[in-house]
Amino acid sequence: MKNYKATRYLFLFVIIFLSAHAFAQNKKSFTADMSEWKQKRIAALKAPNGWLNLTGLFWLKPGKNSFGSDPSNEIVYQHKDMPKKAGYFLFENHQVYWVSAENVKVNIKDSSVTKVLIYEEGKQGAPLLALGNLRWNIIQRDDKIGIRLRDLQAPIVTAFKGCERFKDDSSWRLNARFEKKQENKLLITNVLGQTNAQESPGKLIFSIAGKEYQLDALGEGNELFILFGDATSGKSTYPAGRFLYTDLPDANGNTIIDFNKAFNPPCAFTIFATCPLPPKQNILPIAIKAGEKDHLGGRR
Length: 300
Fold this sequence. Notes:
By secondary structure, this protein is an alpha+beta fold. It folds into two domains: 31-48 and 162-298, no CATH class; 54-153, Tumour Suppressor Smad4. The protein contains two helices and 19 strands. The protein is elongated and about 65 Å long.
């Protein structure tokens, strides 16, 4: 009998030890995963194509749009690397050409350009033009054609250390069920008030505190992309909502939605972004106290 009791206690001890070890390993794995995610997030924001260096957005009018630091230009940008007369954008026949001013060296990659086609309706991939630490390219938003301008040495880039966040909490890492929708279009409105129908493969359904919620998702490569708001929006988090990516569902329609990885849209950092807004059905009535808080210092 004594041997039986001793064996039973030993067995219980082993079970408790293994459970504690597994818990510690899971916690370590979650902590390491979040640490890596946050490092990548900061690196992406500070990268040359990140959002921190975005310092200008100028909409073109048909015809000639002169560009430089002198107030006489149609597009004026004051910067130490910007000549008084840098050149001009020629917008006509659904095309945009860049034409450099005399003695101004504007590059695409390693080649200087004098006159070059930088936008043509229906074609993807507008080239990036460089002048000192300045970079610019064409963007299209419905019928609007604009110049997106970046300063690689913008003060916010070097000063940025990361966004304020809620405390990482693995309880916000939730099991989710993916459900396809008959209507695969999702109407998305951006901050300019423009609305477009985008492909939506379906919605994610999950439970918080025993209650079921759902979020419509957009497809983006090998991930699902979610625009959502919640009861923290406009209080501790960005007023217009946050973004979130999840893995595609497995063969059984299951995936993980980790609100610890909810992050601010570009508009939280700069007034020169044209962010999409969450559809009304993606405004959750509860507070998601996980992920990034509002980056109040990023908007001027």
